[in-house]
Amino acid sequence: MELNITRKQIAKNFSWLLAGNAASGLLNFFAIIYIARVLGATAFGLVQFAQAFLLYLVIIVDAGLSTYGTREIAREPGQAGQVSSNILLLRLLIAFLTFALSLLVCLFLPIPGTLRLLFIITFLLVFYRAFSIDWVFQGLEKMEYVAASKFLFAAASFGLIVALVKRPEHLLAVPLIQLFVGFVLAVFMVFVLFKFFVVFDRKLVAPRNWLNIFWLAIPLGLSTLLMQIYDNLDTIMLGFMDKPATVGIYSAAYRIFYIFAGVLSLWLATLLPVVCRKISDNKADAGLFQKKIFRLTLLCVVPVTILAYFIAPFLIGLFFGQGYGEASLALRWLIWALIPLAINGIYGGLVLIPAGRFNHFLAAAGAGALINVVMNFILIPCFSFVGAAIATVVAQGVAALIAFYFSREYFALTEKA
Known about the structure:
Blueprint: H1 2-62, H2 65-75, H3 80-108, H4 113-123, H5 125-131, H6 134-139, H7 143-164, H8 173-196, H9 210-241, H10 244-281, H11 283-320, H12 327-334, H13 338-352, H14 358-416
Helix pairs in contact: 1-3, 1-4, 1-5, 1-7, 1-9, 1-10, 2-3, 2-10, 3-4, 3-5, 5-8, 7-8, 9-10, 9-14, 10-11, 10-12, 10-13, 11-12, 11-13, 12-14, 13-14
């Protein structure tokens, strides 16, 4: 009976996430296509260049706190009010400090005024991201609210972008629209959370514990930062080492890759709260569950990867047009990263994190990041965006192997105990 309930809950949560993210992902994808066509490769490349830096700031602001909070809420739902209140306020404090530092850097960088303003406006998005509470609903397994949040943001952003962005000179409007929509939606979702699901009590807010929470979460934050290196550093390095049009072409390929990777991440996000509970209750059962999930995941991922390789030119031409034809070559390399990404997600995200082996998860991410940096420096000058794609695939593979090793070690110790 319990197994049937678990399966139904997983199916329900995954269905909500898949439906919400499919709708929001489609809208985001169309928004990217619209921006790419209206702005042109150069202006589009500048927007993507600024967004690439924003991703690192968001990771710093989060500092692993969202993943840590999801794990704690899944393990003890009764503590959701205390966990969410303290982590939300702590993230806002870090966002303020991060933006202040990034603003100082922008003011002193020897870059054109338009690019400086683009960076500053884009970096304001750290406040919206700090205020986002999707991770709380994930821990509570209320995935319908996560899906609704993503869809509403995508729909509102897409509508305003189409209405207001008409030519390359409007590139600053893109982050401004995202900032406005994000803040309005974040405030609404916080209201919903504390009105209907958890009780906000000022007595639960304990700033004296924030430093301890931060140190517990920091290995997860560092892991996310390092993983972002082999997901995103190639875009930044292409921006410095190649022309903006190349960044636009590579970003087009990455956008399609993100569709496939996004579905995989939804699957893993659905399973995370379930695995957290299973490992807490019975490690042996968790090990059997992990093996089943691994087989099922690869059974889907491998055929999809092969299919995407063959239809890459069709996908690029369909969505981005002939001006981005070179992106199909980048996509054919990038798509192979999907397989090690799945392996790393199963053994790292669904074993090491629920088991509290945050430092082992960090080691896997660190090895992948190191490999990625070295290979980007070697391959980008010789092979441009193709070299960047190859570096991403290899880095994901290294991280997956190390996560696999540490997860098998964990279950071996469990069986001996």
